[in-house]
Structure formats: structure tokens, C-alpha cells
């Protein structure tokens, strides 16, 4: 009797890789096919067809053709796919791309055999480990049992784990070696699921005999370290320590298990837990895609709350973080410095408008704003002008959720009930505009006149003016022209107050230029950066000041110094991520990609608005875009953060694998820059379809 495949409701198969070529992957694959009555699939088949691995498995395991799935890509030379393809000028690179590999439909479990080892190149920028991630199967590593196996096996385990791949176990082929088995298990934190001596002779009969004998123990060994089954009862959840199957440190929990733990112990941001649906467990991200534990996939059309520039889990940034984590994870930043922080400070100053030369690191957008406010406040005290303590900010502006940031964002409507906690701020008119707005100039001039009057009247008591340049994010993607921003900068210069820019959202390419202020030729005194800074990997922020502001804090006494600092100031991991992310802007010609996405907004939004605008069905208004940000108001009886229309649209998109998060009745898209333009078109097609159904 054949024992059941060990994961009845888990992954549909196993991926077999090796520590090297020629260690016996194919024999192991044939054995696994026999032990679990599985089908065989080798996506990349190199070598002559008559004696390739698929033919070998057919011969060894005696499998009928119906259980052998044809390779996705066949190459003649017995080399790595990338190298073999170079010899065949006729092979188009799309044929090599791992995304063209799909698991075949079959009722049986699948044994998928790789080619060569884990880091063998397949296509430019893609290797065998990427294929394992793409297919999502746990991996069995074939290794020789004897001398040299420790190093080769541990290297492979480490390489796979560093990419987040589940290692289901190691199979040792050759004469059993107890020492090696023990050391691999202990040092690699991985189970040796099989020791298979050389079969003499190696025939279908001898292999079948071994498979029958080994199938039971193999299944048990795999199950012991396996993911919890999807149908595990809730009380089988780990409450303390590690789950039953914890022999593998990386055994993933099921969607249900994660959601149950979350529902019991986690408190989510901006969420009414009593009425919200359960949080969706995400296991993996790649590019613009998010992969959920329950198998669903979503296109991330909001860059994960606006933090992600280049797409999820970009390997370049991931590698930089991993290398830094193995080198220096953290050191206190009073008294000490380190290369990533010093180099990043220089690169930020190089990328920013001239004159912004001093970088103060913090942890997130809110603290970046707190620091900007404290800097401006103390700057004037240090200058002998202690009366300059007030701030002006804009109606609708959002600057974060800590108390100082709430104070300057009080008019955004997010903080009802906290009025007695915050300090007083002057709120200036914000002349929001859109495509086809005939009054833009008159509106902006009127606002500037009001601001001029305010700044001139209160010059003696104002410390600074704070604005989200060009686009107000959280209050609904409200936009102004660069001309307005330049006008504001002229007024702050004229009245001698400090100009503080909150580029937490707009920074790092969002609006089409590296920083929004560059489109207006504006040079602020202080700028706040966060969100996109680390490539979407780690929470880190920077408040960058002009040299003049910095000089204002120098002196002999500590009383002139900025008495502010966070435990994780200038965290080396965050700095390393930020450095890698900045390099990607040049390497991937990111600003060109942003321009291509902006062109899609510019093409689709006016059309949609005219089709569903005042002269059409009467439901879309104020189309607007800048950089990768495209937005339009969906007019309905309600407005505000809780508007029902936004929730309906979101559900409609989610059902189609597209993740959006409207701000009340404002529909917006803010994709990561790697999003293919046709996917952005698809998002607009979906909006159009949703509106046609008349939500
Ligand atoms: C998100 C945001 C903040 C706050 O940043 P956090 O990292 O969430 O604290 C501040 N300002 C602007 C403009 C933002 O969009």
C-alpha cells in the first residue's frame, strides 16, 4: 500500500534540488514518484531528448507517459538553462522566463525536479531558487552522504532560507554516514528525511522495492517538519513555544492559523476590529504582487500605504539588508557613526535641492515631522527670538499620528476628540485643483494673497510654515500647481519664516521627480522624508535641514543642542536598504517608468471623467494626477473617510485581485513603479466596469 502524500491539504508536491549536478536528483525524484504515486515534471530540460532526465525517470520508475509532464523549456546543451540558451540563438528569452512555468493540472502529487543546484541561472536575473519561489513548493535537497557534504548541504540550506524558501528536508545518497546526518540536522536545523545507499543494480524493480520500504518513514519525516495542515483544528495552534512540526524553523503556518493568532492577539491600525473582516494573511510579495496564505493574489495598487517604490521584496534591497544584518545590526547613534548612515546622508544631500545639507535620522514619517517642528521651534529660541513659536499649516494637511503631527494635521478630519491634547496651529487655505479646472490661477492667487497677509501680520511669532508639497495625501490626493508652491516659498522667504516641507509621501519619485519641491524649484529650510526612503523595507525617516538651521544649534552649552533622539536612530539595516533603493533609481531608470505610468493616468482619467462626469452618468469629478498618483472623486450622497462608495469599490477590486484603498469617496491609484503599464490600464478598466454595474 502506498502511503499518502504527507500534505493532504497542503502544498501539492515537492521540488527536488541538489547540492551539485550528478548527486542523484533524478534517482531521488524517481523514488519519490514511486513512494507517493506522484507525477513527474522537469520544467527546464537540458540535454538530448532520448536520454534526458524525463526519459530516465520513465525508465527507472516505469512511469507511463500520462504521469510524465512535458518540460516547459527544452534546451540541447547539457548546461545551465541560461548558458544552454546562449548556444541556441533561436531560443527567445520569454521561453526561459520562470513566469511561463505553471504547475501541470493533475490529481496526483507532483515531484518537480530542478536543473543543477539552487543558484543555477535560468534567465537574466532569474535562478533556480526564483523558480522554487514561483512554484511555491517545499524543497527537498539531494546531497551525497560522504566527505564534503556538510559544506555543500549547509550552503544550499542557507541560500534557500535566505530567500524565504521552505526546506522540507535533505536526502543523503550513498553509504549512510551517521556523523554527517547528525551534523546536518543540528547545524542546518533541517531534517534528513532519507538515507539511500547506492542500489546495486539500479533497476525499476530495486527502486520500487526501496520505495515501498521507505515510503512510510519518508512520509512521517516530511510530515514532522511540515506546515500545519489547513484543516488543523484551532486548538492545535501553537500557544507557547513552537508548533509540533517545529523541527523546521521555517515551517509556515496555514492561512487559518495565522488569522486565528492575529484575531486573538493583534490590534490593527485605523481599523474598527468589531466590524472589520479578518485580516488577510500575506506570505510573500514580489514586484507589484502580494500573495496570500490562502492562495489568493493581489496587485498592490497603493504601494502598501505609499511606502513601496520598486516593488515588493526587490532582491537587490533584500540582499543589502541581509548582508548588513550579518555585519552590524544596530549601534547607538550618539557618539557612534557607521558607513551606511554617513554615506546615505551624503547621497540624500546630493539628491535634494542645494542647501539641504544636514540629515537627522528618525524612525517614521510622524517622528520626521516632530523633529522638523522642534528644530524650527528651537532654532528661533537659539537665535534670540523666543516669541517665534507658532506654526502655520494647510487645511486638509496630514502629517502623521503622534501628538505634534496631529496638531499640524488637525484639520484633516482624522483626530476628532483629541482637540484638547494638541497645540494651536494657524490653518491656511489650500487651493486644490484638478484637470480642466478653469479657475486654478484665480484660486491660487486668492490663497496666496491670504497667506501673504497672514505671514506679514504674524511674522514676529511664526516659527515656520508646513506643507505637503504638490499633493496632500491622506485627506484625498488634493493637488496644487508647482506655481502655488513657488509662490508660498517666495512668501516665507520674504517674511523670514522657515519653510518646512513634508515630503514623507511625495518623496522618492511619487510625483514624477525625485522630490516634489524640485518641480517648483523650491529650496525649503527643512524637509521630512520617510515612506519610500528604504525601498519599502524598513521603518526609517530623515529630517534634512539647511546648513544655516544646523549652525543655529552650535554653541558651547548643551542647551543649544537638539535634545531629541530615538533608540534606533540611523539603524544600519534601514540605511543599507535606503542606499540600495537609491541605486535602483539609476539602474532601473525609475523616473522613466514613473513617466510611463503617469501617461496612463493622463490618458484614462480625463476620458473616464467625461464618460462618467457631469455630462455623463454624473458620478466622477475632479480627475487629477501627478507622477504615479492618479485620483478622482466618486460623487455620492456621502463623503468622508467612511463613505460607503469607497468600500463598495474596494470590494469590487479585491474580488478581481486588485488591492485599492479609497480615501472615503476619493478613488486613487498609487502603484509601485515596477507596475506594468497594461496593469494600470486594467485597473482603470475595472473602475469603468464597476461604474457601469452602477455599484
Ligand atoms: C504617512 C505620512 C506621514 C506619517 O508617516 P508615518 O510613517 O505613518 O508616521 C506624515 N506625512 C505625510 C505626508 C504622510 O503621508
Topology:
Layout: E1 13-18, H1 25-35, E2 39-41, E3 44-46, H2 53-61, E4 68-69, E5 73-75, H3 81-87, H4 93-96, E6 110-117, E7 121-123, E8 126-127, H5 128-135, E9 139-144, H6 149-162, E10 167-173, H7 178-188, E11 192-196, H8 204-224, H9 255-265, E12 282-286, E13 289-292, E14 297-300, H10 303-306, H11 315-325, H12 339-351, E15 356-362, H13 365-382, E16 390-394, H14 403-408, E17 426-428, H15 440-458, E18 462-467, E19 471-472, E20 478-479, H16 482-495, E21 498-502, E22 526-529, E23 541-546, H17 547-551, H18 572-587, H19 590-611, E24 620-626, E25 629-634, H20 644-655, E26 658-659, E27 666-669, H21 677-693
Parallel strand pairs: 1-6, 1-9, 2-4, 2-6, 3-5, 9-10, 10-11, 14-26, 16-17, 16-18, 18-21, 21-22
Antiparallel strand pairs: 7-8, 12-13, 13-14, 15-23, 19-20, 22-23, 24-25, 25-27
Helix pairs in contact: 1-2, 1-8, 6-7, 11-18, 12-18, 15-16, 19-21
The protein binds pyridoxal-5'-phosphate.
Pyridoxal-5'-phosphate binds next to helix 13.
Describe the structure.
- By secondary structure, the chain is α/β, with parallel strands linked by helices.
- The protein is built from 21 helices and 27 strands.
- Helix content is 36%, strand content 17%.
- It is elongated, with a radius of gyration of 29 Å.
- The relative contact order is 0.08.
- The structure holds pyridoxal-5'-phosphate.
- Pyridoxal-5'-phosphate (PLP) is lined by residues 364-366, 369, 398-400, 468, 473-474, 502, 504-505, 530.
Amino acid at each position: 500500500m502506498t502511503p499518502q502524500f504527507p500534505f493532504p491539504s497542503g502544498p501539492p508536491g515537492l521540488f527536488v534540488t541538489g547540492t551539485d549536478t550528478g548527486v542523484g536528483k533524478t534517482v531521488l525524484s524517481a523514488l519519490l514518484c514511486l513512494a507517493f504515486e506522484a507525477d513527474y515534471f522537469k520544467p527546464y530540460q537540458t540535454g538530448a531528448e532520448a536520454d534526458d532526465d524525463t526519459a530516465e525517470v520513465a525508465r527507472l520508475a516505469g512511469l507511463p507517459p500520462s504521469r510524465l509532464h512535458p518540460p516547459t523549456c527544452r534546451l540541447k546543451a547539457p548546461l545551465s538553462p541560461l548558458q544552454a540558451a546562449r548556444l541556441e540563438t533561436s531560443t527567445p528569452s520569454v521561453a526561459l522566463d520562470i513566469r511561463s512555468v505553471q504547475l501541470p493540472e493533475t490529481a496526483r502529487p507532483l515531484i518537480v525536479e530542478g536543473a543543477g543546484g539552487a543558484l543555477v541561472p535560468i534567465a537574466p536575473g532569474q535562478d533556480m531558487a526564483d523558480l522554487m519561489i514561483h512554484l511555491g513548493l517545499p524543497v527537498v535537497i539531494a546531497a551525497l552522504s560522504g566527505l564534503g557534504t556538510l559544506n555543500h548541504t549547509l550552503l544550499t540550506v542557507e541560500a534557500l532560507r535566505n530567500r524565504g524558501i521552505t526546506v522540507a528536508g535533505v536526502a543523503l545518497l550513498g553509504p549512510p554516514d551517521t556523523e554527517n546526518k547528525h551534523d546536518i540536522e543540528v547545524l542546518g536545523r533541517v531534517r534528513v528525511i532519507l538515507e539511500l545507499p547506492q542500489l546495486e543494480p539500479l533497476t525499476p524493480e530495486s527502486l520500487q522495492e526501496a520505495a515501498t520500504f521507505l515510503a512510510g518513514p519518508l512520509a512521517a519525516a516530511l510530515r514532522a517538519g511540515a506546515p500545519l495542515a489547513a484543516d488543523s483544528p484551532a486548538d492545535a495552534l501553537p500557544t507557547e513555544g513552537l508548533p509540533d512540526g517545529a523541527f523546521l524553523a521555517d515551517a509556515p503556518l496555514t492561512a487559518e492559523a495565522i488569522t486565528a493568532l492575529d484575531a486573538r492577539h493583534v490590534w490593527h491600525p485605523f481599523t474598527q476590529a468589531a466590524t472589520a473582516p479578518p485580516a488577510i494573511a500575506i506570505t510573500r510579495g514580489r514586484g507589484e504582487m502580494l500573495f496570500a496564505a490562502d492562495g489568493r493574489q493581489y496587485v498592490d495598487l497603493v504601494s502598501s500605504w505609499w511606502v513601496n517604490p520598486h516593488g515588493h521584496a526587490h532582491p537587490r534591497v533584500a540582499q543589502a539588508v541581509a548582508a548588513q544584518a550579518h555585519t552590524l545590526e544596530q549601534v547607538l547613534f550618539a557618539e557612534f557613526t557607521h558607513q551606511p548612515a554617513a554615506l546615505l546622508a551624503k547621497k540624500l544631500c546630493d539628491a535634494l535641492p542645494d542647501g539641504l545639507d544636514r540629515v537627522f535620522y528618525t524612525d517614521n514619517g510622524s517622528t520626521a515631522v516632530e523633529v522638523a517642528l522642534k528644530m524650527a521651534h528651537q532654532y528661533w529660541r537659539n537665535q534670540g527670538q523666543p516669541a517665534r513659536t507658532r506654526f502655520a499649516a494647510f487645511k486638509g494637511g496630514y502629517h502623521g499620528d503622534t501628538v505634534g503631527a496631529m496638531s499640524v494635521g488637525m484639520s484633516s478630519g482624522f483626530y476628532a476628540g483629541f482637540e484638547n491634547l494638541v497645540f494651536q496651529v494657524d490653518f491656511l487655505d489650500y487651493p486644490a485643483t484638478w484637470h480642466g479646472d478653469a479657475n486654478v490661477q484665480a484660486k491660487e492667487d486668492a490663497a496666496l494673497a491670504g497667506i501673504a497677509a497672514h505671514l506679514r501680520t504674524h511674522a514676529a511669532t511664526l516659527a515656520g510654515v508646513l506643507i505637503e508639497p504638490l499633493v496632500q495625501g491622506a485627506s484625498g490626493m488634493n493637488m496644487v500647481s508647482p506655481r502655488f508652491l513657488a509662490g508660498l516659498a517666495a512668501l516665507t522667504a520674504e517674511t523670514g519664516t522657515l519653510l518646512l516641507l513634508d515630503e514623507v509621501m511625495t518623496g522618492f519619485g511619487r510625483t514624477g521627480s525625485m522630490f516634489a519641491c524640485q518641480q517648483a524649484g523650491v529650496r525649503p529650510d527643512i524637509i521630512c522624508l520617510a515612506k519610500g526612503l528604504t525601498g519599502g523595507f524598513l521603518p526609517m525617516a530623515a529630517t534634512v535641514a539647511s546648513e544655516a538651521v544646523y549652525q543655529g544649534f552650535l554653541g558651547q552649552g548643551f542647551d543649544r543642542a537638539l535634545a531629541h533622539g530615538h533608540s534606533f536612530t540611523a539603524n544600519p539595516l534601514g540605511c543599507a536598504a535606503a542606499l540600495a533603493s537609491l541605486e535602483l533609481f539609476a539602474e532601473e531608470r525609475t523616473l522613466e517608468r514613473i513617466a510611463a505610468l503617469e501617461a496612463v493616468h493622463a490618458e484614462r482619467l480625463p476620458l473616464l471623467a467625461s464618460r462618467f462626469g457631469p455630462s455623463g452618468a454624473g458620478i466622477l469629478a475632479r480627475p487629477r494626477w501627478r507622477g504615479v498618483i492618479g485620483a478622482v472623486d466618486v460623487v455620492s450622497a456621502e463623503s468622508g473617510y467612511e463613505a460607503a462608495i469607497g468600500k463598495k469599490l474596494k470590494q469590487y477590486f479585491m474580488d478581481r485581485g486588485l488591492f485599492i484603498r479609497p480615501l472615503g469617496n476619493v478613488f486613487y491609484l498609487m502603484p509601485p513603479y515596477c507596475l506594468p503599464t497594461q496593469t494600470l490600464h486594467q485597473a482603470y478598466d475595472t473602475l469603468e466596469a464597476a461604474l457601469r454595474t452602477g455599484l
